[in-house]
Amino acid sequence: MEIYFWAFVVGGLICVIGQLLLDVGKFTPAHVMSILVVSGAILDGLGLYEPLIDFAGAGATVPITSFGNALVHGALAEAQQVGIIGILTGIFEVTSAGISAAIIFGFLAALLFKPKG
Amino acid sequence: MLHGHQTWVFPNKPSIVSTATVGGPFEAEGPLAEDFDLLHGDLWLGQDSYEKAEKKMLEEACEMAIQKAGLQKQDIQFFLSGDLMNQIISSSFAARTLAVPYLGLYGACSSSMESLTLGCLIVDSGSGNYVLCGTSSHNAAAEKQYRYPTEYGSQKPPTAQWTVTGAGVALLSSKGEGPRVTSATIGRVVDMGVTDPFNMGSAMAPAAVDTITAHFRDLRISPQDYDLIATGDLGRVGHRIAGDLLKKHGLEIPEDRFTDCGILIYSKDQPVVLAGGSGCGCSATVTYGHILNRVKKGELKKVLIVATGALLSPLSYQQKESIPCVAHAVSIEFNH
Amino acid sequence: MSNKKKKKLTPVQQQYHSFSKAREPQRPVLLNVIRAFLAGGTICLLGQFIQDFFLWNFNFTEKTAGDPTVAVLILLSVILTASGVYDHIAQWAGAGTAVPVTGFANSIASAAIEHRSEGFVLGVGASMFQLAGSVIVFGVFAAFVVVLIKTTLALLGGS
């Protein structure tokens, strides 16, 4: 099952880019995540991210770069259907699961847990 | 009495009649655990926020120091205190509980010696009989305010330090038995352009060097006059830089008598502390506990404590400012 | 970026920077990179298994199986964050845990849990996105610009 190998390698390599940005570029984690998400958006604009997903599976969908990709996808699909206003209405369509899950589970955690320090 | 440019000599030599130190779980696992008056097993102290826990620690330390001296709250003239929380709420709220006339200070991690210096000026000039000087810090409260939420998965570099969860208080008086404060050098703010809040040691070392140099210059003495010179919280990284910087400026302190509270308070088996301890509570608990215990036993006769503080705020960092630092030095001696 | 900062320093400050740099322990870059690769690869591999699980056992297609996968990974991250384990793993893994969606979830959960002491509205609600907010803002804005450029080019190309 080739895809398992490539999921591991490609996912690992995207993290390596992140690590280099942290250690060599001396960026903060928030800066690094923002750079990666914007990169994902640009790559999808260039039509390069979808082939990466076909090739590496979760190695491309799990890193935060795929968030940028998904945002572009949602906006693009909607814009092609309803015109330019679709950019605004379609952006969160594909990413809704991720953001909703993070908010809901995060809030539940705050309800049930105290920080451990 | 002013000596030189920035040093006060106290002719009446105020006495530290009692001290109290409180610590948290990490400090309890460190090599100086025996020198603490009270150690807590968790960071909450039964309160529902870290900030309230820090205030409680400072209150406990104040009450213990007063009790140890055989006094009551009403006997204390003034309470001088500072801490790392925004608007120094730990000190102010502890002052509310104490109901003693209060002067709040901010010197970041140099607060311990800042409060001791001013307290000595008050006692030495006959402006107060009993003055309580204290400070505190709390690891989780400081991380939450200055850096990231405590459960956030950011990777700390090897130069990062661990804020001490602790409160240290000293009670000064013009009469009574105890180690005596002989002089204090007030530091200038020094900024060498260091911008990384995970590298405080490197930011603070120049301020420590500046104050130490001023101290020896103003009093015309040398490092050999002290049995121990301890910086507040430079950590392993900053302490080494300070030592080398002093050597470069022609002032060499023998290695066996130059140490740092941030290095002393934790052991090598506590890897999460990285470069060592930091925070107001660091210099306070190590000085008022471990170091003064050694002084009282007669192991050390004259010590110089140089507390160092990094005067940044989370906002200044976001606005791309560098980290200005300050260091205050106080000399304490005890002749049996 | 660091050179721009250096230019604003005086000669004495620059001298101090070289002096202190020589005496500071450097970040173990190679070690961190290896750890990030291993941790990140493992999380993505786990994601692949989870995705296949949803694909074979439920009515998801290749396209839609990504959603529950991400949700499961987020749930795992939140549980690890809440139990106080995540930050210790992250100290080892660095970008390996921060770059996958687990990092996103951890930033939200840790901020939410931490600020409970300020209440649910002003604490949890307001501070939840203090770390993840920039990812969402920049992601959305970048997507907006990219799609705007693409649709404009398509319109121009078409006419």
Q: How many strand elements of chain B? A: 15
Proportion in helices of chain A = over 70%
- Provide the number of structural domains of chain B: 2
> Mean pLDDT across all residues of chain A, rounded?
92
Mass-distribution shape of chain A? globular
Query: Which chains share the greatest interface?
Result: A-C, 76 and 77 residues
Weakly predicted, low-confidence segments of chain B? none
Spans of chain A of at least 5 consecutive residues whose pLDDT stays below 50 are none
Written account of the structure:
The complex is a heterotrimer of chains A (117), B (336) and C (159). Chain A contains 7 helices and no strands. With 117 residues, chain A is an all-alpha fold. Chain A is globular, with a radius of gyration of 16 Å. The model of chain A has no long low-confidence stretch (mean pLDDT 92). Chain B has 336 residues and is α/β, with parallel strands linked by helices. Helices cover 35% and strands 23% of the residues of chain B. Chain B has a 7-stranded mixed sheet, sandwiched between helices. A 6-stranded mixed sheet of chain B has the order 4-3-9-7-5-6, sandwiched between helices. In chain B, strands 8-13 form a two-stranded parallel ribbon. The radius of gyration of chain B is 18 Å and the shape is globular. The mean pLDDT of chain B is 95. Chain C is extended. The relative contact order of chain C is 0.07. The chains are: A mainly alpha (117), B alpha/beta (336), C mainly alpha (159).
